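Please, structure for the following, as tokens.
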Amino acid sequence: MGNRISLWVGPVIVGVYAAVMVLTIAVWDPEAAVPGLRYQQIVAGLGDAGVDVVGSVIGLIVWGSVGLVLALVLSILGLAARVERVPVIMGHLLVIAGGAPAYFLGSFSLGIDVADTFAVSGGVHVPTGATLYAVSGVALLVLAVVGIRRAANRQPALV
């Protein structure tokens, strides 16, 4: 039972990561970049500037869903005993590590639109961006450590 539950932890973490990524890019960062306006005013200003905010948000949701689908497929393969538990978990970690470039690329377009429309600086304006990068970094570090340990355990002694 514990192994079955552990196979669902990855998709839950990936889902939370994706939700925080979308909210950071679409809501929290624009609000922090333009502190004098309410979110509805920011969206209206972007719309007046010709930015398809709804399309951008839908694109972000789709972008975040890709990682979630990958994590779910891995878990299903693990539950169906097609893939062992450790490779499934490593796959989950790889998806989480891949969240950093996904966040960077996903935030670029809307971030530039906000900066151009409201004459504010670009970049990340909320701490959740750094948190997403840190979570991805930890996942990458764990992947590296596990990979090195697994490789070392398979190598014959040099003596």
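The helical segments are 2-33, 39-48, 53-79, 85-97, 99-118, 127-154. DSSP finds six helices and no strands in the chain.
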